[in-house]
Write a structure and sequence with these properties.
The protein contains 5 helices and no strands. The chain is an all-alpha fold. It has one domain: Orthogonal Bundle (434 Repressor (Amino-terminal Domain)), CATH 1.10.260. The radius of gyration is 12 Å and the shape is globular. The chain starts with 5 loop residues before the first helix and ends in a 13-residue tail after the last helix.
């Protein structure tokens, strides 16, 4: 594993949000994360696990891929219904 690079983390968020046609407000609503917090990630700051999982879920990607860029992009089924 190459580890987490903050700027690439932000790029993955921006790219996936754009694929969904979402801006910050959309992602905030869908993930339950404050816009200001998302703005920090958008600009390349890393996030805590308690934010990473809902963010990955909203974007429809795996938390591992979102954090590191490695592994499968599609999430494993981990959500409890």
């Amino acid at each position: 594993m190459t580890g987490v690079r903050a700027e690439m983390f932000g790029e993955r968020i921006r790219t996936r949000a754009a694929e969904l046609g979402w801006g910050l407000s959309d992602l905030s609503r869908e993930s339950g994360t404050k816009k200001a917090t998302l703005q920090n990630f958008w600009e390349g700051r890393l996030c805590r696990a308690d934010v990473l999982f809902p963010l990955a879920d909203a974007l429809g990607v795996s938390p591992r891929w979102l954090a590191t860029g490695e592994g499968e992009v599609a999430p494993a089924v981990w959500r409890q219904y």
